[in-house]
């Protein structure tokens, strides 16, 4: 039997969250956190609505997952996020010791790789899943803004 | 007339917050954010109590200040924090475009300088204010934990 729970499957869920952000006038980044094929947190960027630079999708997903799990370490968890995390989010993910991060589009200027941030040595990193869809949503957003 | 509102004055307030964290069994880091000699946010590390790796003193102070100011950019604000910010907090401070950061003790291993994080080019950085007092509180905490 084919496994439906692929990286693409969960990235689609993150992309749905990003679309909600888009519709709300937020930079369209969405995230889900998954344990054993179960989504335990869904979130999207809320920096405008909350007037808070810390309200990135990943930050909310980390807090929600820790709350769900009853512990602050996200061992065994996978984050799916439509955009490469920034250094703040990479730093939070570092502290969480999350097992795996999967992101869609790269962020050449503000992504953690360009900014010099570090992930935890225990964290596996996968990039480029549904990259075009994730990047297109960002481009559409900034095109409308202009 | 002597100006009582020195960096030491506000670092003492941050240190008082760190002492509250200490008494609660939290890694003793405290912070205040100041605008025109007025403290608009006070916070201390709450990662254990909240079971949340994102609950560093700086993160809470950023969110509280943005809430107080009614906008997410902390222009004209100074953060006083007893320990060098980590890459997560440096990343949040980057997004906030805060005008000045003053920290007490250095964090050789997990500070943003060792981890490779970046501050905003508009942000002035001052370090070593009340360094001994800030570092001693940390050392006392980890000595007790052992």
UniProtKB/TrEMBL annotation, chains A, B:
Key word Nuclease present: no
Catalytic activity, EC: 3.5.4.33
Top EC group: hydrolase
InterPro entries: APOBEC/CMP_deaminase_Zn-bd (IPR016192), CMP_dCMP_dom (IPR002125), Cytidine_deaminase-like (IPR016193), tRNA_aden_deaminase (IPR028883)
Reactions this protein catalyses: adenosine(34) in tRNA + H2O + H(+) = inosine(34) in tRNA + NH4(+)
Entry's cofactor comment: Binds 1 zinc ion per subunit.
Active site: residue positions: 58
Cofactor: Zn(2+)
GO molecular function: tRNA-specific adenosine-34 deaminase activity; zinc ion binding
This protein's record includes keyword Transferase: no
CDD domains the record matches: nucleoside_deaminase (cd01285)
Sequence intervals crossing the membrane: none
Chain ranges of the CMP/dCMP-type deaminase domain: 5-119
PROSITE patterns: CYT_DCMP_DEAMINASES_1, CYT_DCMP_DEAMINASES_2
Positions that bind Zn(2+): 56, 86, 89
Top-level taxonomic group: Bacteria
Keywords from the UniProt entry: Hydrolase, Metal-binding, tRNA processing, Zinc
Gene Ontology BP, a term: tRNA wobble adenosine to inosine editing
Job description of the protein: Catalyzes the deamination of adenosine to inosine at the wobble position 34 of tRNA(Arg2).
Family: Belongs to the cytidine and deoxycytidylate deaminase family. ADAT2 subfamily.
Cross-referenced PANTHER family: CYTOSINE DEAMINASE FAMILY MEMBER (PTHR11079), TRNA-SPECIFIC ADENOSINE DEAMINASE (PTHR11079:SF202)
Protein name in the entry: tRNA-specific adenosine deaminase
Protein species of origin: Flavobacterium terrae
Lineage per the UniProt record: Bacteria, Pseudomonadati, Bacteroidota, Flavobacteriia, Flavobacteriales
Gene: tadA
């Amino acid at each position: 039997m084919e496994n439906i729970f692929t990286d693409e499957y969960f990235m689609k869920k993150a992309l749905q969250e990003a679309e909600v952000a888009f519709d709300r006038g937020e930079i369209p980044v969405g995230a889900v956190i998954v344990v054993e094929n179960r989504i335990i947190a869904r979130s999207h960027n809320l920096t405008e609505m909350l007037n808070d630079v810390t309200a990135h999708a990943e930050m909310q997903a980390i807090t929600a997952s820790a709350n769900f799990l009853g512990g602050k370490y996200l061992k065994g968890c996978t984050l799916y996020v439509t955009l490469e995390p920034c250094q703040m989010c990479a730093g939070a993910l570092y502290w969480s010791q999350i097992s795996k991060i999967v992101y869609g589009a790269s962020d050449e200027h503000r992504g953690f790789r360009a900014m010099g941030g570090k992930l935890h040595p225990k964290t596996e990193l996968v990039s480029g899943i549904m990259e075009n869809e994730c990047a297109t949503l960002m481009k559409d957003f900034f095109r409308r803004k202009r």
